[in-house]
Design a protein that fits this description.
Elements lengths: L1 H17 L3 H26 L1
Length: 48
């Protein structure tokens, strides 16, 4: 599920750049970061 979050965040970041929306770009960046953190946490949880 985190992979979809990363893809959606990347889409929001690119669309925010096209639309000249710094708020959209910031939200997209935050969604990407949250997705990456989610993947890292799930990998650590599964390896334990």
């Amino acid at each position: 599920m985190s992979i979809f979050g990363i893809l959606f965040g990347a889409f929001m970041f690119v669309y925010g750049g096209i639309d000249d929306s710094p708020g959209g770009q910031l939200l997209g960046l935050l969604v990407v970061i949250i997705g990456i953190v989610g993947i890292i946490k799930s990998k650590k949880k599964n390896s334990s």
